[in-house]
Amino acid sequence: MLQPVVDADAQLRHIAAMVDARKCPNPRVIVTRELPNATMDRLEALFDTVNNRADLAMSREQLAEAMAYCDVLVPTVVDAIDAELIAAAGDRLKLIANFGAGVNHIDLKAARARGIIVTNTPGVLTEDTADMTMALIVSVPRRLAEGEKLVRSGEWKGWSPGGMLGHRIGGKALGIVGMGRIGQAVARRARAFGLSIHYHNRHRLPKVVEAELQAQWHPNLDEMLANVDILTIHTPRNADSENLISAERIGLLRPHVYLINASRGGIVDEDAMIEALEAGSLAGAGLDVWTHEPMIDPRLLALPNVVMTPHMGSATFEGRLATGERVMTNIRMWADGHRPPDQVLEGWI
Ligand SMILES: NC(=O)c1ccc[n+]([C@@H]2O[C@H](COP(=O)([O-])OP(=O)(O)OC[C@H]3O[C@@H](n4cnc5c(N)ncnc54)[C@H](O)[C@@H]3O)[C@@H](O)[C@H]2O)c1
Ligand SMILES: O=C(O)[C@H](O)CO
After folding, report:
1. Which ranges carry the D-isomer specific 2-hydroxyacid dehydrogenase NAD-binding domain (predicted)?
2. Would you tell me which CATH number, out of the four given (3.40.50.720, 3.90.640.20, 3.90.1150.10, 1.20.1250.40), belongs to the domain 125-308?
3. Which residues lie closer than 8 Å to 215 by C-beta, 6 or more apart?
């Protein structure tokens, strides 16, 4: 008779002990930046939390100190959690529960090498960011910022047939690069504005979703770029999307095209985009994110056909509270010994 290779009871005891070891009933949580009061209060009620109650990002030294003494770090997009900081983190640090969807400021590979789980907050910011993107899609061709500036200047002389003419968006072709949550939410809005939807994504969407969005898949990004009137970017910034909209690809866009980016700086070659705008080979841009945030290339400030917002795509009171809840769910699930629902893995985001 075959003998079992391992004693099943012993194996179960071993698994139970491992789960217990992972349970962390009252983890020390350090939050790097002031969050909504309700979120900070709940974090303090639920965990052994140290909130940074200042609306100032931590210095690198403060981050290193925090990472030496906590079980869970709650950073935001402005905290560069690079390989060096992760390598120097204390043994206690087991979870980085990011307050936000994008995690390009965290070195996922280095975190995995140290056995540190990283989570984000997908879904709760989707509609707000799509609203802001849609606002940029409308604002740039219709010259909203220029019009607002004219009224404020006191220089407006009244209505005229040729005054403030822009371009209609209805009937135009919208190209969406990155058709995930936000890309799809933008597509829904854009359909209502009469735009036709074209998309390029790492994976093709299920036929039923394509049908609902009336979206046409373009496996070849270059081919899509050469045929759209408005281009909007919604991929995360990752190894594959870095400089995805390169100088060469900007060169494929027709001169009447508007480029919108509410995803991340670094995906679009900002220098090449500015040169195209200055040369008139790109009609305009709507930008919520920047290559060197919060520094803005001064050449952009001089361009009237660029609408600029300060990384505020997800900035709603409701969205911030929901983001906080998502962070707490991830911490609670992890502390109870489960896999947190929003774990992100390098190569999957
Ligand atoms: N401006 C803001 O305030 C704000 C707010 C929220 C999110 N964001 C940004 O938006 C990004 C997208 O968020 P989401 O919730 O839609 O993410 P998501 O994961 O739901 O969707 C991303 C999509 O991009 C695709 N993708 C990834 N890399 C690609 C590549 N190289 N080429 C083509 N497709 C690629 C993925 O397959 C996925 O379908 C976030 O990562 C974040 O950087 C910005
Ligand atoms: O990615 C996000 O959630 C926003 O850009 C803020 O981090």
Report:
1. 134-313
2. 3.40.50.720
3. 176, 179, 187, 197, 198, 199, 205, 209
Closest CA to 130 of 67, 74, 78, 178: 178
Q: pTM of the full predicted structure?
A: 0.93
Ligand of minimum distance to the alpha carbon of 342: 1
Residue range 15-120+317-336 forms a domain whose CATH class is alpha beta
Nearest to 314 by CA among 267, 262, 249, 274: 262
CA nearest 167: which of 300, 255, 256, 274? 256
Listed in order, the ranges of the chain carrying CATH 3.40.50.720 are 15-120+317-336, 125-308
CB 140 within 8 A of CB 307: yes
| Ligand 1 center–CA 240 separation, angstroms | 12
Please list the residues that pair with 200 across neighbouring strands.
177
Tell me the average pLDDT across 224-235: 98
Given the residues 44, 275, 293, 346, select the one marked as catalytic. 293
- Per-residue pLDDT tens digits for 190-228: 999 999 999 999 999 999 999 999 999 999 999 999 999
**Ligand that comes closest to the CA of residue 129:** 1
Question: Between these two residues, 19 and 310, which has the higher pLDDT value?
Answer: 310
